Amino acid sequence: MALSSLYRTLQALEAERVLLLSHAPAGLQAVLVLDDRTLGPPLIELRVASFTDASASIADAAKSARAMSLKCSLAGLDAGGAALVVQDLPGLDRTRAMGWLSRELQTLTGAWTVAGMGASSRDMRLLAQGGALVDPAQSPREAALTQGVLRCLTTLAESKEKDLADCSFAIQGAGPLAQRVAEALSAMGGDLVIADHDPGLARRVADTLGARMVPAHGIWSCDVDILVPCAQVGLIGPKIVPQIRAWGVCGASTSPLADLESAEALHRRGIIAVPGMVSCLGGLAQGLDMGGPGLSLDELATMVEDLLEESQSTGRSPRVIAEERAWERIELAG
Fold first, then answer.
1. Residue 54 predicted with pLDDT over 90
2. What's the CATH superfamily of 139-333?
3. pTM
4. Who contacts 247 (Cβ-Cβ below 8 Å, separation ≥6)?
């Protein structure tokens, strides 16, 4: 990537700080984006994934960091947002990489790190062993996150006077969190379609749950009630929005929509999209010392109800309204 192109990418961001990290002995290339620390120390989402170039990894980190800032605000936490994206390169020595990153993270006073896409429990243990403040309740937090997503899906269905058990779902992603959500919906009797960029994984999950599998690119146009994005951030953009046939969107992806324009485009089509920054609030604060208890499931459901009601009465998309509420708290604190 040319240096001029890299600077253009950085200048287009609204982030407070962007750090490009490299440690040759571990084969490590990573980017740390600190989005906004007005409310307090950063809550960092660790993500491990393969990207085509530095620009793509920076963009992914920036989207995740911004979503974390907004999530912390909506959850009532005294915390800012950040994201650490590690390039999953062939020569990556994860043991050495996480040990080195742990020391870097300790320079951010009061920062906690939670697992995101591609980050394993072993990665988190290695960070903790190096001295970084790491989510000590990862499994309970993931279970709470799943329950939060299900509560949001229930509230979304009720907004259409439907029972969640009678709905059909297209689940985009087949990773651990997507599997949790899929298992819960399957147990309720929901009709499932599953897709993932790894077709073998998607096939295994689909076969286990008795669900139908489709190619990754085909998940958007499935004739279902609700699209449940549970994978990479920012995939639902201008090319995808017209393909969606579901009447609702709600999942376990923190920021499934590429931008506000895509949120507005969905809204104009009459598709009700619960913002990922809201549906992923369940268990956000569990086990973390971030200045607040976070939201209960009842409070989360009430937030979704309020967003959908205001959206219907004002004609604005739920994501626009959610972002306004989040920024209002940040601006008042500043």
1. no
2. NAD(P)-binding Rossmann-like Domain (3.40.50.720)
3. 0.89
4. 160, 225, 226, 270, 271, 272
